[in-house]
Amino acid sequence: MEILSAEQIRAWDEYTIQHEPIASIDLMERAAASCLAWLEKQGYLDRSFSIYCGKGNNGGDGLALARMLSLLDCPVTVHILEFGNIGTEDFQGNLARLHQTPVEVRFVQGPEHFHPVPQDDILIDALLGSGLNRPLEGVTAQLVEHLNASGNEIIAIDIPSGLFVSRSAKGNTVIRASHTLSFQVYKPAFLMPENEVWVGEVHILDIGLHPGFLSQIAGEAEILDPDIIGAIFRPRQAFAHKGNFGHALLVAGSYGKMGAAVLAARACLRTGSGLLTCAIPGCGYAILQTALPEAMLVMDPDEKIHTAVPDGLDKYSVIGVGPGLGQDQRTVAFLRSLLQQSRKPVVVDADALNILASHPHLLSLLPPYSILTPHPKEFERLFGPSPDDYVRVEKAREQARKLGCIIVLKGHYSLIAMPGGKSYFNSTGNPGMAKGGSGDVLTGILTALLGQSYSPGEAALLGVYLHGLAGDLAADTHSQESMLPSDLTDHLGKAFQIIQKR
Ligand SMILES: NC(=O)C1=CN([C@@H]2O[C@H](COP(=O)(O)OP(=O)(O)OC[C@H]3O[C@@H](n4cnc5c(N)ncnc54)[C@H](OP(=O)(O)O)[C@@H]3O)[C@@H](O)[C@H]2O)[C@@H](O)CC1
Ligand SMILES: Nc1ncnc2c1ncn2[C@@H]1O[C@H](COP(=O)(O)OP(=O)(O)O)[C@@H](O)[C@H]1O
Ligand SMILES: [K+]
């Protein structure tokens, strides 16, 4: 699913109006009807509603919804915020239609018109939508604060009023919705952690915009969905042998952090690597041999840390490096040699990223199309602080282009930024994965896929999606609270089966 800017969405409206064809007010009718259907499905129709409208098309949606609710005998009051203009054509058309119903319409010109909010009313926010072009101020901001302070449940139409579609509204006044009903596609605003308090749960409603439009635009970002994954995943051939599925080298673990190596290695095996060798310090020998009989080992001469690059790197189809590595000075030198000798894309995570952050000149040694998997803190260490989430995402895209690498910026909607400029937001995963070790599992998964002749881009997309899907399945089994990173690996099998069936 594409992620579009406000301008692109407006253009899609226009395209639909021309090519379906459909009158603009009828498209608004469809948008309002989709909100009504959602309210009905969620069991809201036995409630009473206060609907707050601006004078743009977002307000028009609110007026149309008010009429529809009233026709179903729901008690509705409409409050229209006076902006000192007559409103858009479709707003006016819907106001005329609303006047033919018994719905009471109140005009709000100043705080003296802010009625106390009836305690049990559901508030519908149709003040401002994707047309917002400046922060809320004056009466508008005061009204939003009044509604937020009411403690009532607020459902926002299209986007909570005060939130921009594609840039930060940090520090501004914004409606705090518990649900946002938006149309057709995700907007960037819904994917940014800083907006969670305002958007609540997001529901994308299909209003039948013309599909022909999508072939005309070069979308910069997409939601990683089952269709994309279905096109990437390749089932095993009947006559395949282990040589077809790569020989992965996983460089991980140090004294006190051998668990990271075990987690990554198990995930690598469960993601189908043909062969796996783990490069580990001496202290990990018994641990790895006992935990994972399927894995082979190459031992570092040092007992506790990584100091020496294993011989014959070229025989491995892929290298994954980082989980539990430590940042000893000798390990820094080790990482430098490892990257210098690597001729294929490498998966780089955790302490390997931290070493790159403290020795940025090493970034130039990354083989093209390597996959870097920083969480936001590691990202900040690598590329500096960002004032808001939008800037961080943009910076990740920029760095992916600059380094010629894939950057997986991990989070609720992990961003996968490709060197060619395209990026994806992952749709799987849950807060049960916010535990030390989940990232190590991802490294194992990505390393396995990259070794199995998936292209680096394919491996990154499939791996991040599978990791989150396994997380969702683990949460179903164990709850988000109780699930462990190792449960992600235990649910990879089921995750593969789901992908395969689609
Ligand atoms: N496909 C879809 O998605 C469909 C979308 N539809 C709906 O259309 C909505 C977009 O409608 P829209 O373009 O009329 O914008 P909307 O936000 O109602 O008004 C913005 C106007 O307000 C003003 N303004 C801006 N900032 C302000 C501020 N801080 N404080 C005060 N005023 C401010 C500014 O005018 P200005 O004052 O700058 O002249 C601007 O022009 C969309 O969200 C969805 O609900 C459906 O109906 C059909 C299908
Ligand atoms: N709230 C969340 N929703 C979805 N996924 C999450 C959430 N929190 C963490 N994750 C996922 O869990 C993983 C955590 O990785 P990371 O922070 O590197 O963990 P660690 O280094 O401790 O193993 C990432 O893939 C991230 O996307
Ligand atoms: K709104």
Automatic annotation (TrEMBL):
Binding site for K(+): 58, 125, 161
Residue span(s) of domain YjeF C-terminal: 225-499
One GO BP: nicotinamide nucleotide metabolic process
Record bears the keyword NADP: yes
Keyword terms of this UniProt record: ATP-binding, Isomerase, Lyase, Metal-binding, Multifunctional enzyme, NAD, NADP, Nucleotide-binding, Potassium
Cofactor(s) it depends on: K(+); Mg(2+)
UniProt: AMP binding residues: 410-414, 439
Cofactor note: Binds 1 potassium ion per subunit.
Record-linked Pfam families: Carb_kinase, YjeF_N
Domain YjeF N-terminal: 9-215
E.C. number: 4.2.1.136, 5.1.99.6
SUPFAM superfamilies, per database record: Ribokinase-like (SSF53613), YjeF N-terminal domain-like (SSF64153)
Positions with a binding annotation for (6S)-NADPHX: 57-61, 129-135, 158, 260, 324, 375, 440
A GO MF term: metal ion binding
InterPro entries: Carbohydrate_kinase_pred_CS (IPR017953), CARKD (IPR000631), Nnr (IPR030677), Ribokinase-like (IPR029056), YjeF_N_dom (IPR004443), YjeF_N_dom_sf (IPR036652)
Catalytic activity: (6S)-NADPHX + ADP = AMP + phosphate + NADPH + H(+); (6R)-NADPHX = (6S)-NADPHX; (6S)-NADHX + ADP = AMP + phosphate + NADH + H(+); (6R)-NADHX = (6S)-NADHX
Family: Belongs to the NnrD/CARKD family.
PANTHER family: ATP-DEPENDENT (S)-NAD(P)H-HYDRATE DEHYDRATASE (PTHR12592:SF0), ATP-DEPENDENT (S)-NAD(P)H-HYDRATE DEHYDRATASE FAMILY MEMBER (PTHR12592)
HAMAP family reported for this sequence: NADHX_dehydratase, NADHX_epimerase
Function: Bifunctional enzyme that catalyzes the epimerization of the S- and R-forms of NAD(P)HX and the dehydration of the S-form of NAD(P)HX at the expense of ADP, which is converted to AMP. This allows the repair of both epimers of NAD(P)HX, a damaged form of NAD(P)H that is a result of enzymatic or heat-dependent hydration. Catalyzes the epimerization of the S- and R-forms of NAD(P)HX, a damaged form of NAD(P)H that is a result of enzymatic or heat-dependent hydration. This is a prerequisite for the S-specific NAD(P)H-hydrate dehydratase to allow the repair of both epimers of NAD(P)HX.
Known partners and oligomeric status: Homotetramer.
Protein's name in the database: Bifunctional NAD(P)H-hydrate repair enzyme
Organism: Puia dinghuensis
Name of the gene: nnrE
